[in-house]
Amino acid sequence: MARSTANLQTYRRRYAAAFLSPMVVALLLIVAWPLLRSTWFSFTDASLADLDAARWVGLSNYFSTISLSRGRTAYVGLLVDPVWWSAVWNTAVFAVSSVAIQTVLGVAVALVLNARFPLRGLVRAAVLIPWAIPTIVSAKMWDWMLNDQLGIVNDLALRLGLLAEKVAWTSDVDTAMLAVILVDSWKNTPFVALLALAALQMIPGDIYEAAKIDGVHPVKVFFRITLPLIRIPLMVAVLFRMLDALRSFDLQYILTPANPNTKTMSVLARENLFEFDKFAYGSAQATLLFLIIVVFTALYLTIFRVRLVNKPE
Amino acid sequence: MARAVSTRRKTLNTALAGTLGFLMFFPILWILILSFKTEEDAIRAPLEVLFNSGWTTESFATVQARSDYFKHFSNSVIISVGSTFLGLLIAIPAAWSMAFVPSKHTKNVLMWMLSTKMLPPVGVLVPIYLLFRDTGLLDSRLGLTLVLMLINLPIIIWMLYTYFKEIPGEILEAARMDGATLREEIIYVLTPMAIPGMASTVLLNIILAWNEAFWTINLTAANAAPLTAFIASYSSPEGLFYAKLSAASIMAIAPILIMGWFSQKQLVRGLTFGAVK
């Protein structure tokens, strides 16, 4: 009997390993192999037209020096490219401000939705919709609503006296980033709100009862009880949003095409890969973007002591 | 007194929630209205659009007639549904393994799957693009189905894993004691119990695949383009096309809205990994 149990265990373990293998193969195929190949391209002078002719050039896509006449040296490569650093800056500004807005609004929305009121299901569905529709569609939709001459946003803002004159939100260099952040927040606040709502529903009601009996002010209840109790799920939601924002592509691609003030690292890298025939350089940008995200995630998880996976019992 | 305060707070909260719902939904409502207007009416001032112009379904007909909406629609359906169910075939056994026969590697595998969230698609695009070019998978529904299956696989597995973890292992053990084989255990015992979780997983993944744009824009052209790629490149050769664009957008999101409406409970559960009931 004992022996057959042991046999069964081995049998199950063997199957468990076999069952994992298609997944491992799939991940190697979609993640590991293309990533390594992209990284390899970034160390070559490959061009999309003739990949076989690619030669190893070491780090020169990233950084190298050229000796000029009269003994001066010039620095070239990604690390000294102002266009690249401007894309890094744009991505950082976009990610930090849109995620900050979404977090604050998301928690507020979750607090509203957490109370009981008539037609709660309907309101929850309405809030969920912006998240559920394709970014491409919302970008096109907002592009039209933000149109300088015919858009409804300018029209309403003028009527309400919020604006003195019509603004070309998406093409004006000063407002393009604002427009992108606005649309992204409209779309993704629901995501944070739902995760925050999930966390709120886990808080036992008697904690609030106790606070009420002790006469604690609601604002104090929020900062001393609610916020600390939803901290970890909220930090995870923020991390997921940051990862998406740092990789952001479709919104900027549709809403503010070719605008240097909103161009993210992903948009820039894709441009170099496919449109500018600077294939190896684009690969270097993609590789560096991945490195930046990995470092960011590692720092975030360490600094805020967030655990994504619990140890299996 | 306390009662009056709580009633007032309730009214305030209801008003806030109503305003919130309206604000979030308003852009969709506006596009919906525009889609039933002629091009000339769609560019009039908002109040005039609302009260001083007629309604027509002409834009919908034009979009279908000129750009073959149904072809893109069926591409979207095939690609999103296909990639989700193909993904389930790999994900169910994998999630079973990790949930019921955990090993010291389980945590690493989970972290590895999560780490795919850090990977910028642009970092893996070119090798896959080249592979597709060389194997003739570019602009094919099969190719896109495979890619979307692969990129969403970590999420499918992760979600199924969290749902499977809620199922007590003793039930599966009891089935084994009664002589069920592994196959029977998974198909007849585990799967039926995990149906709600699987439904959420399927729904969420169909929506994610339906909304995917980076891969659809870069790997398809006229032939296999689903609705996202179609909308991204939508324009009209002559003049104004905002009513038509609105109609096309509404047609692209209608299936999601209808499906999402009837399954919002599962969707919310799926999105929050089962935490909001």
Summarize the structure.
By secondary structure, chain A is an all-alpha fold. Chain A is built from eleven helices and two strands.
Q: Which keywords apply here?
A:
heterodimer; A: 313 residues; MetI-like fold; 2 strands; 3% strand; globular; B: 277 residues; mainly alpha; 2 domains; 15 helices
Structure commentary:
- The complex is a heterodimer of chains A (313) and B (277).
- Chain A has helices at 2-42, 82-114, 120-132, 135-145, 152-159, 176-202, 205-213, 218-246, 250-255, 265-275, 279-303, and strands at residues 64-67, 73-76.
- Chain A is an all-alpha fold.
- Chain A has a two-stranded antiparallel ribbon.
- Chain B is mainly alpha-helical and 277 residues long.
- Chain B is built from 15 helices and no strands.
- Chain B has helices at residues 2-35, 39-42, 46-51, 58-67, 69-100, 106-115, 121-135, 141-165, 169-177, 182-193, 195-211, 214-219, 227-232, 242-262, 264-271.
- Chain B starts with a helix and ends in a 6-residue tail after the last helix.
- The mean pLDDT of chain B is 83.
- Chains A and B meet through helix 1, helix 2, helix 3, helix 4 and helix 5 of A and helix 1, helix 5, helix 6, helix 7 and helix 8 of B.
